[in-house]
Design a protein that fits this description.
Layout (H helix, E strand, L loop, with lengths): L21 H6 L4 H14 L1 H12 L10 E2 L7 E2 L4 E2 L1 H5 L12 E6 L5 E5 H17 L7 E5 L4 H13 L2 E4 L6 H11 L1 E7 L1 E4 L2 E4 L1 H9 L8 E5 L13 E3 H5 L11 E2 L5 E5 L7 E5 L2 H14 L7 E4 L6 H13 L3 E5 L10 H9 L3 E4 L1 H13 L15 E5 L5 H11 L6 E4 L33 E4 L12 E5 L9 E2 L3 H8 L9 E9 L6 E6 L3 E4 L2 E4 H9 L5 E11 L3 E10 L6 H18 L8 E4 L13 H9 L14 H7 L3
Parallel strand pairs: 4-17, 6-7, 6-8, 8-11, 11-12, 16-17, 16-18, 18-19, 19-20, 29-30
Antiparallel strand pairs: 1-2, 3-13, 4-5, 9-10, 14-15, 15-23, 21-22, 22-24, 24-25, 26-27, 28-29
Helix pairs in contact: 2-3, 5-6, 7-8, 10-11, 13-14
The structure holds adenosine-5'-monophosphate-propyl ester.
Length: 665
């Protein structure tokens, strides 16, 4: 059955309930709602005891912890603070001598379809060798390493190798610009950069190393002593003598055996940058112990991973989803997983379905934006519809990164999951480390478009501006009332911003503010996320700060006087970026306007990365402002959507600009 085009546009609320089949319930790790409720009750009764139990069950400690939660310096919470462990040993060494040792850890499919497999034992050796190579370059425990790599086994190895020697990694998504790399390298104080000469995406060879060169040449990155280059393709790259080494050179003569370094549970495993409501991205700092606990436990619970499963999370390692559900969670759980280098539309939009069939994927985890674009493709070309492939290996589907509209949910359920596979709509954020609200495949009755209920121990609530709980049916702010082990520890180098952003005084300074709006259903108390309540957009499941894009636009000082950025709904990307721009020259029209709009789009793509490229650019002689000079963003949001203006515009200095700003280029 093929969906009608309206299937991806509508945001209707779907009230049908899809309970798990008896068979699924019977086989699941968390079997039935009673089992879920028992865990919730355990966490309620003995909060610390519950987390301590899970920490002992999920993590191999080199020194057992005696403390569980330390809230003496809240909101800088500590978990298992006197315990010690190594994250890489928790993913690899733990499996040696078990039946997992010779199991396939990663099935890698390259952009061109070539497949490589590694077992857990082989992966451990590669990580050990790479870790020794890092040590040989002088990288020590506590040093920061920036990783700018394509989706490859080597990317996972690089992260694991850092963890093995106690170095803190900071992965930058391969689609970010030189400027973004430079800013992050400076902020995190990287001593070494791991990159590739090129990455292959959609049949094209795209540069990475030259972007690193450009970033480091911008200045301020003097802490970087070494650049390691993975030669993904045979195309030559430019070597900076005394700084750059190929992987082959760095690995030569290195032993595969590298004892894992024990670190404190609170030791920063990684810093991952994400957008906030100011111009500067935030370095979200995660711990080792608490993070590993929840990464593994959620991989096992949410995806119900069993011995024979083939798991595939399509996220890039440059995002939190790739950290938790590619590099750490599935490996700690001993799963076999698929890692994919390419894009879902190459060589055609049937690639995902073809790969599911080819590798007999049983648990598939992707983003609504990918699903919506594949619905569109299947609607216009029957040959790439999932019905053309054998998807009978699938047993669980997952969704992450943005709200999934009920129509896309239904299409995914019917056409990919054959009406047999539960869909886990997982709500969480970079700052959460791992899943927060999600159905459990063998327990939770599903309602399309709802992420359903919090995981046991996650004290999620919907509150008003004063922090008071709201009844079901009332929309409010999503908060987490108690700390949890995999939570953000601080913003790298900016503890004040950490407190202000996530634990605002208005809510008492102890409650985590997610930055999303939510509402619970009247009947079941199920959560539905209504979108960000701050100046953060969600474009194709990627977070973008409006201020970040505005800063990039006004940085084009020869052209731009002022800019304001808002989001508007988009049927494929969820939200699209719409920029209102005042130029330092008369307002352009017609072809000139189109030309300048293109110039500005390309500029933003260069400044931040292609994901930040504004879809719409509109020009005005001014922006709509209140008398006190504040930009009326609500008005801009209406204009972006093409809605009639119903707001009070009496305070506007020049109402005629509204007509100008309503025009698209
Ligand atoms: O707005 C929410 C949305 O994505 C934001 C977090 O983005 P990021 O830190 O990049 O992490 C994305 C992957 C975990 C949230 O504040 N979001 C994420 N998952 C969902 C979601 N919105 C609705 N439903 C979801 N399942």
């Amino acid at each position: 059955m093929s969906a009608s085009p309206s299937a991806i546009e509508s945001v209707l609320i779907e009230n049908r309930v899809f309970p798990p089949s008896e068979e699924t319930v019977k086989a699941a790790r968390i079997s039935g709602m009673e089992a879920y409720e028992a865990l919730c009750a355990e966490a309620e009764r003995d909060f610390e005891g519950y987390w301590a139990r899970l920490a002992r069950e999920n993590v191999i400690w080199t020194k057992p912890f005696t403390q569980v939660l330390d809230d003496s310096n809240a909101p800088f919470y500590k978990w298992f603070a006197d315990g010690e462990l190594n994250a890489s040993a928790n993913c690899l060494d733990r499996h040696m001598g078990t039946e997992v040792e010779h199991k396939t850890a990663i099935i890698f499919e390259a952009d061109d379809g070539a497949v490589t497999r590694v077992t857990y034992r082989e992966l451990l050796k590669r990580v050990g060798r790479f870790a020794n190579a890092l040590k040989a370059q002088g990288v020590k425990k506590g040093d920061r390493v920036l990783i700018y790599m394509p989706m490859t086994i080597e990317g996972v190895v690089a992260m694991q190798a850092c963890a093995r020697i106690g170095a803190t990694h900071s992965v930058v998504f391969g689609g970010f610009s030189a400027k973004a790399v430079q800013e992050r390298a400076i902020d995190v104080g990287a001593v070494l950069v791991i990159t590739a000469n090129y990455q292959m995406r959609g049949g094209k060879e795209l540069p990475l190393k030259s972007i690193v060169d450009e970033a480091l040449a911008m200045g301020g990155c003097e802490s970087v002593r070494t650049v390691l280059v993975y030669e993904r393709t045979s195309t030559p790259w430019n070597r900076v003598q005394g700084r750059d080494l190929s992987f082959a050179e760095a690995l030569e003569g290195q032993d595969a055996d590298c004892p894992p370094v024990s670190v404190n549970a609170e030791h920063p495993l990684f810093v991952l940058y994400t957008s906030g409501s100011t111009g500067k991205p935030k370095g979200v700092q995660h711990s080792t112990g608490g993070y590993m606990l929840w990464a593994r436990q959620t991989a096992l619970w949410t995806f119900d991973l069993q011995d024979k499963d083939v798991f595939w999370c399509t996220a890039d390692i440059g995002w939190i989803t790739g950290h938790t559900y590619v590099t750490y969670g599935p490996l700690a759980a001993g799963a076999t997983q698929v890692v994919f280098e390419g894009v879902p539309t190459y060589p055609n939009a049937g690639r995902f379905w073809q790969m599911i069939e080819r590798h007999k994927v049983s648990v598939f985890y992707t983003a609504p934006t990918a699903i919506r674009s594949l619905i569109k493709a299947a609607d216009s070309d029957d040959k790439v519809h999932p019905k053309n492939w054998d998807l009978s290996s699938l047993r669980i589907l997952g969704s992450v990164g943005e709200p999934i509209n009920p129509e896309a949910w239904m299409w995914y359920y019917k056409n990919v999951g054959g009406e047999r596979c539960p869909i886990v709509d997982t709500f969480w954020q970079t700052e959460n480390g791992a899943h927060v609200i999600t159905p459990l495949p063998g327990a939770t009755p599903l309602v399309p478009g709802s992420c359903t209920l919090p995981l046991p121990g996650m004290a999620v609530a919907v509150v008003d501006e004063t922090g008071h709980d709201l009844p079901n049916g009332a929309g409010g702010m999503l908060v987490i009332k108690r700390p949890w082990p995999s939570m953000i520890r601080t913003i790298w180098g900016d503890p004040e911003r950490f407190k202000k952003s996530y634990f605002p005084e208005e809510l008492g300074g102890r409650i985590y503010l997610a930055g999303d709006g939510a509402v619970r259903s009247e009947d079941r108390g199920y959560f539905r996320i209504t979108g960000r309540i701050d100046d953060v957009l969600n474009v194709s499941g990627h977070r973008m700060g409006t201020m970040e894009i505005e800063s990039a636009l006004v940085a084009k000082t020869d052209l731009v006087a002022e800019a304001a950025v808002v989001g508007r709904p988009d049927d494929v990307t969820g939200e699209a970026i719409c920029a209102f721009v005042v130029l330092k020259r008369p307002r352009p029209e017609g072809e000139e306007a189109q030309q300048i709009a293109k110039e500005l789009r390309d500029w933003v793509a260069r400044e931040i990365g292609p994901i930040a490229r504004p879809k719409d650019i509109r020009f005005g002689e001014n922006l709509p402002k209140t008398r006190s000079g504040k930009i009326m963003r609500r008005l801009l949001r209406s204009l972006a959507k093409g809605e009639a203006i119903t707001q009070d515009t009496s305070t506007l200095e020049n109402p005629a600009i509204l007509d100008q700003l309503a025009q698209t280029n």
